[in-house]
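Late entry, written up from scratch paper. The run itself happened at the end of the previous shift, but nothing got recorded in the book at the time, so transcribing now.
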Amino acid sequence: MPLVRIDLVRGRRPDEVRAVADATHRALVEVLGIPERDRFQIVTEHEGDHIVALDAGLGFTRTDRLVMIQIFTQTGRTTQVKQRLFRVVAQRLGTLGIGGEDVFVSVVENGPQDWSFGFGRAQYTEGALPVPGR
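Output as recorded:
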């Protein structure tokens, strides 16, 4: 059950914003094996000067096509799976004309006790939902 935050520089058409969200979700389904309807995304557009994303000293320049993605998910995925996810997200966004220098992805892990899907209940810990990967 990933929760995905996608931050973009304002200026894309609504269909372009949706295409970024769709491409990100397809990568999660492919790599993490989540169900198609297990989709929770928050897409936020910002003025260009409200996102600061330098190159961390890697020697490249980002553009106004920047996409920053935070994936909140349960712990337990290997480094290899995460690296594959990074590659697949970049590849899928590349088909939309977003260069690799403009794809920033971060995975944040937590446990089943950290999720409530509604009604003030922790559905994983109560047994109402199966814990992914267990």
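The radius of gyration is 16 Å.
(Scratch paper discarded after transcription.)
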